[in-house]
Please model this.
Amino acid sequence: MRLRPATAADLPALAAVQRSYDITWFGAPEHNEDEVSEWLELADVLSVAESGDRAVAFGNKSRTGSALVLDPTADVAAATGLLVPWLAQVGAPDTEVLDRDDALRSALVAAGWRHQYSSFELLRRVTDQWTRAAPVWPDGVVTRPFEPGQDAQVHHLVYAEAGWADVAGHHMRNLAEWQQIFLAGRPPAERPLVAWRHGRPVGVALLRVFSDRTGWVAQLAVARGERGRGLGRALLLAAFERLVAAGATKVGLSVIATNRAALRLYLDVGLRIDREWQTFTAGP
Model:
């Protein structure tokens, strides 16, 4: 087995590794090639492990973290033997691991990495048995479609007025990076849902429908001065309806496990914890 830098020509092979990973751990493919390409484009270092002429794993490192994706049907021990030291070589600030992936977790611990925090993905299938409440908006708050030219206002809401990056495990992103991750290429049905008060954005839900028809609330942010009035709940419920109307057959989001207030809200509106991701950091 060997490790080498990945190139754009490797995308189909990396997508095949991701597909095998998804099927093994989650029972079905969850990412198509375009979606794999999107988050690989954010990587500043990307390597692929090959056994013969077959890609069996890859690692990506970006400014805000890293991830290793291993084909569980391949020689996982050999792949981790290459990729775990690679994390240190490229200076990865941390790395995220599925809590059930005992082989990778054990390899990280053996190399001196420590579990820092966890995050949960919460999901709920859209069925006739799941009755979702209608959103109730605080007095004076209105929702309007997101329009071109509002990017900077909404970015300021997320990171300044709502303090998104103040939550441990959340990252500060400049406007260009945020636009690339959350806005670029999104169809009209996935435009952000923005709540306004007196012409100023005070809450937002950023939406995405993935290829497996999972509707995702990528960010949910409410200005500090608007909290405690039900705006977050209203945005979440309205986001669910937008996602279902766009074709989602299940809806979900991610939350840092220690963010108990947010976790209570998500469970209360009907979501359920589906999986746990553990973030490890290197060093003592």
